[in-house]
Write a structure and sequence with these properties.
- The protein contains 13 helices and 25 strands.
- It is α/β, with parallel strands linked by helices.
- β17 and β18 form a beta hairpin.
- α2 (53-68) packs across α11 (314-324) and α7 (223-233) crosses α8.
- It binds one RNA strand through α5, β6, α7, α12 and β19.
RNA sequence: UGGGGCGUAGCCAAGUGGUAAGGCAGCGGCCUUUGGAGCCGCCAUUCGUAGGUUCGAAUCCUGCCGCCCCAGCCA
């Protein structure tokens, strides 16, 4: 309790954070009253898709909370529907959880590990007269279920004898009946105001091959039947899930109470929504399958693998989870929160380099032909221990097209005819001429002079100019491709049926012919840099030494862009 | 017209009867060889709303309003 005065300290999230939230309040209470004396959580994904940033919130909550209470968190695959699941997904999920920095030790489980036990439990319920085999088909079950305002009707098969139920269920298991012809249902209350209690289906017949149990089973448990017992068997004390399972809780409690087994406490929280993206598995799957993106790990996807390829760090995602908090109120987080977490992290650790994405040639007229100077540049002004490096300077350079305006607007601090600007780590130059292509009228070259007394670091370099721009020596530059990513959707909430109409057609701009400082020639996939004044970039997985490819992770804050847009 | 939840700033979110934390966004300023980073200041007389209880209410009570979820043999 004496830790509470620390709650104001931000930026300390390294393993899930320690902010106060209602989940922790409940856990504290349970520990105090002795309802439980340890904290054991679990992250239970269905292996039917890739994990996204919303799962990251849940992972940080489950693993982070367990860790902070010196408890444990299991990884469990809820693989109860063989028609939708695949090993491809179980592998990617493990990779993503590990990448985020969490460890399940030797506690990786599958709901399918429990199929035998679940079957036994079902038989026990039948023997108690609490479950029965129903011959109604799916349509008939729906008709008997009633509506939100009207009670349901009992199935005509509801009062079969225990022996008949036992026999039928056994034969269902053996595969004697076709898919959909029978189900095993819990016998609860067809008139319950909670529809989940109206004799929910526990088992359906599915002659399907399961990715782990093969053809052993012809019946598969429904999630509602498998989940609570799985938690119970694993000794999960706090079963944290999302809001939509709130009214399934009475059912889960009913099952464990009927079976007389350990009862976990379920706690529901609001799932994450983010602006300018979609989060449902169905829609993400659609984006991939319809080719709107290049795959699950496309850097524009809100998937964990997409964020990773985009250049996000695990630390930044954990910081994000900590900042947004946990509550039960439906919410939509502004994507700028995520971006700010990333910048906060990368600012401290990314090496600064100079890269010109849209080059324009600059000739320094009064600089000696053939001369090359090695200038010293700092690798990270936020972290002196990252040292310095040498970069070559010569007569012919490239600067960013956007750093020159023939007709500059007010408050434009960069280069324009007659104006002076500092070349970062080098000299102050002045534009003395503009060369244009006589056919097109486009600028092909800038003629400049430099002031030899203004070399960076020299005692006489004190002269101030308004602007400083980045550059790269033409003859030393290395070539690269930049993939400039922007938000996938151009509206904050791409909801509704028409969601694909707000897909941003400019979410990816491929820029070829970028010129980079020579040290970048050997950059390897996943290396992250700050391209000075532009943003953070990482080397794409497809990059090779002969063909460098950089992904724009996120831009720097650009106050000039803000001023100019007014 | 059933059941379960949720309403604190543009977006999140603390707050648990003693007089509205923090973050993001925004705005203004300082500083700066990244228009980066950093720093300073501003940004809810009021907590969906109307009453009630109380010396005192975002916190307790009552009514009303709004939003989300539930009628898969999906999870």
């Amino acid at each position: 309790m004496e830790e509470e005065n620390k709650q104001g300290s931000e930026e300390t999230a390294s393993q899930g954070g320690s902010r106060r939230n209602f989940v922790r309040d409940i856990i504290d209470e349970d520990l105090k009253t002795g309802r439980y004396n340890t904290v054991h959580t679990r992250f239970p994904p269905e292996p039917n898709g890739y994990l996204h940033i919303g799962h990251a919130k849940s992972i940080c909550l489950n693993f982070g909370t367990a860790k902070d209470y010196q408890g444990l968190c299991n990884l469990r695959f809820d693989d109860t529907n063989p028609t939708k699941e695949d090993v491809e997904y179980v592998e990617s999920i493990q990779e993503d959880v590990r990448w985020l920095g969490f460890d399940w030790g030797d506690r990786m489980y599958y709901a399918s590990d429990y199929f035998d036990k679940l079957y036994e439990y079902a038989v026990a319920l039948i023997r108690k007269g609490k479950a029965y085999v129903d011959d109604l088909n799916a349509d008939q079950i729906r008709e008997h279920r009633g509506t939100l305002t009207e009670p349901g009707k009992d199935s005509p098969y509801r009062n079969r004898s225990i022996d008949e139920n036992l026999d039928l269920f056994e034969r269902m298991r053996k595969g004697e009946f076709p898919d959909g012809s029978k189900t095993l249902r819990a016998k609860i209350d067809m008139s319950s105001p909670n529809i989940n209690m109206r004799d929910p289906v526990m088992y359906r017949i599915l002659h399907a091959t399961h990715h782990r149990t093969g053809d052993k089973w012809c019946v598969y448990p429904m999630y509602d039947w498998a989940h609570g017992q799985s938690d119970s068997m694993e000794g999960i004390t706090h079963s944290i899930c999302t809001l939509e399972f709130e009214d399934h809780r009475p059912l889960y409690n009913w099952f464990v109470d009927q079976l007389g087994i350990f009862r976990p406490r379920q706690i529901e929280f609001a799932r994450l929504n983010l602006t300018y993206t979609v989060m449902s598995k169905r829609r993400l799957l659609q984006l991939v399958h319809e080719g709107h993106v290049r795959g699950w790990d496309d850097p524009r996807m809100p998937t964990i693998s997409g964020l990773r390829r985009r250049g996000y760090t695990p630390e930044s995602v954990r910081l994000f989870a900590d900042r947004i908090g946990v509550s039960k109120a439906d919410s939509v987080i502004d994507v700028s929160v995520l971006e700010d977490c990333l910048r906060a992290d990368l600012n401290k650790r990314a090496r600064r380099v100079m890269a010109v994405l849209h080059p324009i040639r600059v000739v320094i007229e009064n600089y000696p032909d053939g001369q090359v100077e090695e200038l010293e540049a700092v690798n990270n002004p936020e972290d002196e221990s990252m040292g310095t490096r040498k970069i070559p300077f010569s007569k012919v350079l490239y600067i960013e097209q956007d750093d020159f305006r023939e007709d500059p607007p007010k408050k434009y601090f960069r280069l324009s005819p007659g104006a002076e600007v500092r070349l970062r780590y080098a000299y102050i130059i002045k534009c003395v001429g503009v060369v244009k292509d006589p056919q097109t009228g486009l600028i092909t070259e800038l003629r400049c002079t430099y002031d030899p007394d203004t070399k960076s670091g020299s005692p006489a370099s004190q002269r101030k100019v308004k602007g400083t721009i980045h550059w790269v020596s033409a003859e030393h530059a290395v070539d690269a491709e930049a993939r400039v990513y922007d938000r996938l959707f151009n509206v904050p909430d791409p909801g509704g049926e028409n969601w694909k109409s707000s897909l941003n057609p400019d979410s990816l701009e491929i820029v070829k012919g970028c010129r980079l400082e020579p040290g970048l020639a050997k950059a390897k996939p996943q290396d992250r840099f700050q391209f000075e004044r532009l943003g953070y970039y990482c080397v794409d997985d497809e990059s090779t030494e002969g063909h460098l490819v950089f992904n724009r992770t996120v831009t720097l804050r650009d106050t000039w862009a803000k001023i100019e847009s007014k």
